[in-house]
Amino acid sequence: MAETILVTGGTGTLGRVVAARLLGNGREVRVLSRRPAPAGTPYAWRTGDLKTGAGIAHAAQGVDTIAHCATGSLGAGDVAATRTLVDAVRGAHLVYISIVGIDKIPFPYYKAKLATERLIENSGLPWTILRATQFHDLVAALTRVQASLPITFTLKGRFQPVDVREVADRLVELALGHPASRVPDMGGPEVRDSRDLARACLAAAGRKKPVVAISLPGKAARAFRAGANLTPAHADGKITFEQYLDEH
Ligand SMILES: NC(=O)c1ccc[n+]([C@@H]2O[C@H](COP(=O)([O-])OP(=O)(O)OC[C@H]3O[C@@H](n4cnc5c(N)ncnc54)[C@H](OP(=O)(O)O)[C@@H]3O)[C@@H](O)[C@H]2O)c1
């Protein structure tokens, strides 16, 4: 019987690319989503909710590998959601996408990611965890969401944005391989000041306005300013932020 790979969050920014890249590898590709299957989907679709547990047993049945890309709106429920997933599977290789620096930057979302990593490590399942830096999409969204303001605000610090297609390629490689525990971090090709990235985003939209970096108090913002979200030794991505902006 063909190997079955379940992609949680297979409708999300990362998961949808992971699912598409897994097609054609001779495996059954299942997508888990809270929504019903769209017409003509090429996936073995499973409607389920990791928050309530509805449909998860059916989604996890007979699965060999899971690319776990689902995340809730603010992430606070991600630990419980992952517990639901872990409890539903039997012996599957669990591949998890995490974020560079979550052990050093105590943002609430990052604390939940770290707790989720620990849960997976202690789950008894074979596992692989990849930490990536912020996706281009997220960094661009931080500026785009302020489109109606006369000033663009950024968090004082730097980003090393990475293209989601390259992260998906790496995640697929890991999902098709053997369990590898924590693998080396993955970052984008350039470390850039947050103001510089905001200006690039504005320029791509043909706009010009002041960009102001805010220095927030607290340990998390301090760690971010110190660059704990970066991995310059693993600047593996090739697609720059400007290349991404050209395409979007
Ligand atoms: N964004 C970044 O910069 C970045 C960087 C590094 C790592 N990551 C990590 O990459 C992962 C994916 O991020 P993303 O930006 O692709 O997320 P996203 O676009 O917000 O997608 C979230 C996905 O989670 C699913 N989901 C949410 N709640 C669910 C629930 N209760 N039950 C089942 N599915 C649920 C959604 O599916 P439906 O709505 O269809 O149900 C959706 O497909 C996250 O773990 C994130 O921490 C992100």
How would you describe this structure in keywords?
single chain; binds NADP nicotinamide-adenine-dinucleotide phosphate; 9 helices; Rossmann fold; 248 residues; seven-stranded parallel β-sheet; globular; alpha/beta
Question: Can you give a write-up of this model?
Answer:
This protein has 248 residues and is an alpha/beta fold. It has one domain (4-247): Rossmann fold (3-Layer(aba) Sandwich), CATH 3.40.50. 34% of the residues lie in helices and 19% in strands. It contains nine helices and eleven strands. The chain has helices spanning 15-22, 56-60, 78-88, 108-121, 136-144, 164-176, 194-204, 219-225, 241-247, and strands at residues 4-8, 28-33, 44-47, 65-68, 93-99, 127-132, 152-155, 158-159, 181-182, 192-193, 211-214. It has a seven-stranded parallel beta sheet with strand order 3-2-1-4-5-6-9, sandwiched between helices. Strand 4 (65-68), helix 3 (78-88) and strand 5 (93-99) form a beta-alpha-beta unit. The chain is globular and about 55 Å long. The termini are far apart. It binds NADP nicotinamide-adenine-dinucleotide phosphate. NADP nicotinamide-adenine-dinucleotide phosphate (NAP) is lined by residues 8-9, 11-15, 32-35, 49-51, 69-72, 81, 97, 99, 113, 132, 134-135, 138. One of its GO terms (cellular component) is photosystem II. One of its GO terms (biological process) is photosynthesis. Keywords: Photosynthesis, Photosystem II. Pfam families: NAD_binding_10. This is NAD(P)H-binding protein.
